Amino acid sequence: MPEDLSQPPESNESGKNWEEHNPDIEREITIDEFQPYGTLTLTLLYFLIVALMWVFMYFIEFGGNAPSIIE
Amino acid sequence: MTFIHKYPKAAKVAKANFVVAFIALAIGGFFGFVQALHRTDVFRGFFNSGEYYTLLTGHGVLLALIFTTFFIAGLFVWGVTRSLDREPENMSYTWSWFWLMTIGTVMATVAILGGLVPDSSIRAAVLYTFYPPLQAHPLFYIGLALVLVGSWMAGADWFWSYRKWRKGSPDERVPILTFMALFTMLMWYVCTIGLALEVVGLLIPWSLGWVTEIEPLLPRTLFWFFGHAVVYFWLLPAYYVWYAILPKLSGGRLFSDSMTRIVFIIFLLLSTPVGYHHQYADAGISVGFKFYAMATTMLLLLPSLITLFTVVASMEHGARQRGGKGYLKWIGKLPWDKPAFVGCALAGIMFAAGGFSGMINAGMNINILIHNTIWVPGHFHLTVGTAVALTFMAITYWLLPQLTGRKLKFKTLALIQPYAWFLGMTLMSNAMHRAGLAGVPRRTAEPQYSGFEFEPIFGTMAEMDWQIAIGGTILTISLILFLWVVIASWMAGQKSDKPVDDHIPEPLSGVEHTPAILDNMKLWFTLALILVILAYAFPLLEMVADGIFEPGALPRPS
Ligand code: HEM
Ligand SMILES: [Cu+2]
Fold first, then answer.
1. What residue's CA is closest to ligand 1, atom 20?
2. Apex CA B315: angle with CA B312 and CA B320, to 5°?
């Protein structure tokens, strides 16, 4: 199996060592080291906003005690 | 060595597709600008209100159908060629689908623009949904049919490459760039069945005068059979970019190969059976079918949430490799000064916001609240108008150097462009949503009535109108910046062997952890067909039994 499936075989850089060649990258993080806490935080934030929007929707639909489009 | 040096033939096809896509983007975008000023009564001097539908048709068709389709074709040519490491099998065949699609596009565009010529009999003011009772010149429908057939042939081209590749590599897993392209096309084959039946079976004979009346509900239903899935035909290629390229642009790797494949499979299975959720307000379809569509629509949230997780986690991985720390501080380490990254990331944020209004649209009861108001364009300018269009523009900054062998010019303008789009869309779309809640209709040249006031829940009508007009203007400026950067780089960018870093690293959790069954295309395609038959066979049979060409057929309330 080639190192890197998205890269044509004649490519001279090897997929695994991409991080080593890249000046932007300070340190390589493997799958075992990677803990996506940030993703968890953002996802929870998103769910919180969704929940608030649902509550808010109550006021849009029922708040006026009248249909809100047809007067 | 970059793409154009390795695969000169494929590069040429991809570029040709991009040319058509960007011309459509330029014309369609200009119409959007006119609409934003016209319907807010800021400036009505470009065209008269009677021509509004013609403009709106040009805007919807050229942007939502033509720009997207051609860009996607170019993107997939790039991805399939690169990941299978082979040029298209037969260049005459490849060029024949490109030219078929292009001729079809020219025909449809001529039909639409004919509406701006006084006393012309060629017109097509039928909006991008183009179902009866609005009728267009036959040129329009025939043109669209050619685009459709061309897109089928394009898909076949990629399957052809895949088959050939498979012969040489019987034991290898489908490379992920090819996997995503092929699954998108499988979904396209399923959903365009409805469109082909509608256009060829009903609309073309009707526009030619061979039949004078058609049952109204049938073409609507066939359209929406296609009409929801088409949004995933736009969106999946944006996901393609977010999964395959964005992690690398963030300085990391795709989080998981198998999650990516699962998401594309779920979309193949669920995209088409949900079409009735666009017909909640249609009489003649029983509540049971609508309810089934609502439930399936809610299931579709799942792959979008998986995408949220996978894409954000990949970006976080990139940021942490670039020295990012903390729960949220890592976000600052992302390359917010690289146009391609910024465009994709802002597009993703807008898409998350579009999720809110999408959930409202999907609910059978609260849908009525916003039905046919300008809330709806507010929603889809976040999704197709930004998540898709901005991603396509941004990734052009990365693809174009590979396709032309030239470096990007005017990097600062290229960087301003996505931020400007984001700002313009924030203004335009929030105002559209709120105006929709106040009952302002969509698709209306002069939505203000005399002796009638819309009552906004917050803000004022005047303020919303200004936000739409200013937002639309900023969007137009952003579009001009994009075209300027692309044309300048294409014509005069500095030539280089490696004009951009085009390497894509392997996923963190690679294909070796991906169950083989995920690659079984026959299985998933068959399942998708079965689900569609379950959802559609019975109601469609009912409508056909009413008499396809029977004007008097009664809608049947549930
Ligand atoms: C310069 C940027 C844009 C501006 C100023 C703009 C403006 C508008 C406005 C004001 C409307 C509502 C018209 C009405 O309902 O009366 C509209 C509709 C629409 N826009 Fe845009 N838009 C832009 C970009 C886009 C993009 C990039 C796409 C898709 C890729 C898009 C797709 C659509 C579609 C499908 C409609 C609905 C057409 C219909 O109702 O038949 N727009 N646009
Ligand atoms: Cu839909």
1. B60
2. 125
In angstroms, rounded to a whole number, what is the distance separating the alpha carbons of residues B389 and B69? 11
**Which of chain B's residues have a Cβ under 8 Å away from the Cβ of A68?**
369, 437, 439, 457
- Residues contacting residue B469 through CB under 8 Å, at least 6 positions apart: B36, B37, B40, B42
Residues A6 and B80: their CA atoms lie apart, in Å, by: 10
Nearest CA in chain B to A63: B457
Instruction: For ligand 1, atom 3, name the residue with the nearest CA.
Output: B32
pLDDT band for position A11 (50/70/90)?
Answer: very low
pTM, two decimals, is: 0.94
Of A11, A39, A50, the CB nearest to B316: A39
What is the amino acid identity at position B5? H
Does B441 contact ligand 1 (Cβ within 6 A)? no
On the question of pLDDT at A7 being above 50, the answer is no
Chain B residue closest in CA terms to A5:
B175
pLDDT by residue (tens digit) across B497-540? 999 999 999 998 888 888 889 999 999 999 999 999 998 998 88
pLDDT band at A16 (very low <50, low <70, confident <90, very high): low
Residue B438 contacts residue B374 (beta carbons within 8 Å): no
> What's the per-residue H, E or C state across B174-203?
CCHHHHHHHHHHHHHHHHHHHHHHHHHHHH
Q: Choosing among B306, B312, B375, which should be mutated to test the A contact, i.e. which has the most A CBs within 10 A?
A: B312
Mean pLDDT of B293-301: 89
User: Chain B contacts of A13, Cβ < 8 Å?
Assistant: 503
For B91-103, write each residue's pLDDT tens digit. Answer: 999 999 999 999 9
Q: Which pLDDT does position A9 carry in this prediction?
A: 45
Is any atom of ligand 1 closer than 6 Å to the C-beta of B350?
no
Inform me whether the C-beta atom of residue A66 falls under 8 Å from chain B C-beta atoms. Answer: no
Q: Is the CB of B59 under 6 A from ligand 1?
A: yes
CB atoms inside a 10 Å sphere around CB A31: 14
pLDDT digits (tens, 9 = 90+) for B332-386: 999 999 999 999 999 999 999 999 899 899 988 889 889 999 999 999 999 999 9
ipTM score of the complex? Answer: 0.85
Q: In angstroms, rounded to a whole number, what is the distance separating the alpha carbons of residues B398 and B499?
A: 9
* C-alpha torsion sign, points B408, B410, B416, B422: negative
Mean pLDDT, residues A11-25: 68
Q: How far is CA B217 from CA B155, B250, B549, B553, in A?
A: 30, 48, 11, 9
